[in-house]
Fold this sequence. Notes:
Layout: E1 24-26, E2 31-33, H1 34-57, H2 66-74, H3 81-101, E3 115-118, H4 125-136, E4 140-144, H5 160-168, H6 173-176, E5 180-184, H7 206-217, E6 220-223, E7 237-240, E8 245-250, H8 255-267, H9 288-294, H10 298-302, E9 306-309, H11 315-323, H12 329-338, E10 343-346, H13 348-361, H14 364-382, E11 390-393, H15 395-410
Parallel strand pairs: 3-8, 3-9, 4-5, 5-8, 10-11
Antiparallel strand pairs: 1-2, 6-7
Helix pairs in contact: 2-3, 8-9, 11-13, 13-14, 13-15, 14-15
Amino acid sequence: MAKRSKEDNFCHFCGRPETAANPLIYGLSGAICESCVRAAADMIRENARANAAETKRSFTPKLLKPSQIKANLDQYVIGQDEAKKVISVAVYNHYKRLIHSAEENDDVEIEKSNILMIGETGTGKTLIAKTIAKMLEVPFCIADATVFTEAGYVGEDVESILTRLLQAANYDVAKAECGIVFIDEIDKIARKGADNPSITRDVSGEGVQQSLLKLLEGAKVNVPPEGGRKHPEQKFIEVNTQNILFIGSGAFNSIDKIISERVNTNVIGYNSKNRSVDKNNMLQYVSAQDVKTFGLIPELCGRFPVITHLNNLDATALHKILVEPKNALIKQYIKLFEMDHIQLDFSEEAIDYIVEKAVELKLGARGLRSIVEKIMNNAMYEFPDSKKNAITVTLDYAKEQFEHSIYRFLK
Length: 411
């Protein structure tokens, strides 16, 4: 290498000469000083931040106001006004935080608020979550908490939740990171014997709760595209769960007794006469303390700061569910028969009978479909081949078909 003259000892970027305080780094055809190296490094970091922000903005969910979210829910979900208000506010705040965090660099970091819905089967928990995801046009997946086990045991690991979300987003990571995950039957992973912990490892209870913590809080997780633990050689996809909204759901059977004990304890004493407790609907008083007593670990309770309840559906609500929403069950069957050019009608007495049986079976709105399916099964089999173009489901027909299906099952 040729010897350099003093005239060559300067930064070819800024022109400053080499000194003890400003050493140069030489390349094949030039030199750069320490100040220019630092400036270049800052520029690279800034470009990386800008690219990351642009990637986040590549998918922006719709932002609807709480009143708009509730108005949309009202079209599909009958009743549950209090739950719909709580969830509408939580969802609005979550996506408002997500959208503005990509635009602003603020010292105040708003933490996300995952939601826990408590209510018996058939009260509308899954329908609310599905409807919100559809109206916001974000990826949505349902995970059953009962199939998960702690890593290293037979069963699914919690990271498989994110695999399903990726699939719902067509493997668009930026889109998946704005999605909604609905964890059903989360009450089934409560600690076994919360008051008397077992000496054996609770791999499908507390072990799963511990595994869920990092997903709920917000972490970068390496997710296998498919196959989970069974294909460890496959490439992983990194998913940041910081902006994923998790909605937990469960019946939490007998939690009303826990609530009752706590509330009755609280009302005893000073000024207790001014407290009126509705004993027929104890779920409205549910708190994180009750969920913890039920068997969810404190850390998991803290990851679900928004807790709401869904009321049991009475006959009036079930009647409305059957006929009023946009996708009401009666409307669905009318549409099915229309496809065969058959006009279907239900008498009011037949609808009342269906509601009566749903109340009797105590399956909520979910029981309505199984009852109507039993009543309509023969008609759906016979009428497409017949020349008839109209059918009316009367009370006698509904009774005959439903009782026949029950008798056949018992026989």
